[in-house]
Please model this.
Amino acid sequence: MADRQFDPFDNKVALVTGAGGGIGRQVALAFAAQGARVMATDINGDAADATAEAIRAAGGDARALAVDVTDNSQVAAMVRATVDAFGALHCAFNNAGVEEENDKIADVDEVLFDRVMAINVKGVWLCMKHQIPALLAAGGGSIVNTASVAGLIGAPKRAAYAASKHAVVGMTKSVAAEYARKNVRVNTVCPGIIRTAMMERAIQLVARAGGASEEKQRQFHAAMHPMGRVGEADEVANAVLWLASDASSFVTGHQLAVDGGLTAL
Model:
């Protein structure tokens, strides 16, 4: 796709969950731009199709699949479909997730807590469970899981979300140690506040609940970061591709914060 002498993911196959929009779509596009064949998956099949079509329109090779990452059989089928379509699996970006809270813990509904944990924690666990055998069959590879700065520090009114992302960090470290001698690397990317549709939904949720106006929230979010702005999805994608590539060949079990300095405070 891209006009370059060397594409670092030539002959590689990348699987992206939550690829229907935001960071996931940007990462899927970036993998393809650097030579990878991409399986774009999302619980919203139409959104996954749109990502795959954008890759094909730019000259890349991509397939799409609707997948609920909380369902063991669907996740297993997703990995099988990737290997069947492209012959192998070399890289995975486990990005599917939700952020739906805006309450102190005493006011959070149990159903919401269970949903956040099912998608953000069980979903990543199931993906790694089924991806790792495929990576081993290919001789090794790289997994990048989406955590968050909320996996590194606290997040008031986001206790369940923070717990889920701390769990992703813990799983990532554990699995990285388990497979470090098998040529499988596992890392997390920990974004700060990134300009995506998810961020906009969260802003609107707070405003509708009687909190700060949307504009006040955007100003506050920018001010949280020492760089004075929120991040962009392509900035996270650059970090993910570095972690997935051979350029980070001695990096595993790491949490890479892409947060404009937020966790430096």
Observations:
- Residues 110-137 form the longest helix (28 residues).
- The first strand starts at residue 13 and ends at 16.
- The helical segments are 22-33, 45-57, 72-86, 110-137, 159-179, 197-208, 214-224, 233-244.
